[in-house]
Please model this.
Amino acid sequence: MNLIISEINKRNKYVFKKLFNKHYKGLVIYANGYLFDMDSSKDIVQDVFIYIWEHSGKLNIKTSLKAYLYSMVRNRCLNYLKSIKVTDNFSFLDFNISLITEEVYDSSSEQDKSKVYNKVLEIVDTLPEKMQQVVKLKFLHNYKYAQIAEELGVSINTVKTQLKRAKYKITQMVTTLLVFLQI
Model:
């Protein structure tokens, strides 16, 4: 790890390009799990690599380089969401109290909450396209049922049905995760 950063600090473009090629795609997918916007995800990952290139001499990496990259991407995604007034603080999970009871969720560590939150985002990405749109509009953009219906050209009942089905699918999958995490 220190060798890679040391080589980047010496402006070794080959080592930098190898690092970029090895992690870029995975980091973009990871960022997209937060942002649901592929262009912004790519921009953030590119910004992280630019930062690494420009500040390699100042970096103090105490974990693995891969973990450091993922942490940087996560933090930049959260900062980006804050900058566009999308705050979450794990409230994405609040749309379905039956996913995790208050007592269990409140007693969970931040790391476990983060795992569950990221799993919910992954699950949302596996939902059918229209269902994903409804869930994202409702819980990431705080649209009301009528606004979602108008935006997607469907009835309010369709919006409610899609949310109900999404809630059911997410509940099933998160319950499995909670058992695995032993939360």
Summary: The radius of gyration is 19 Å. The chain has two domains: 2-83, 91-181. DSSP finds nine helices and no strands in the chain.
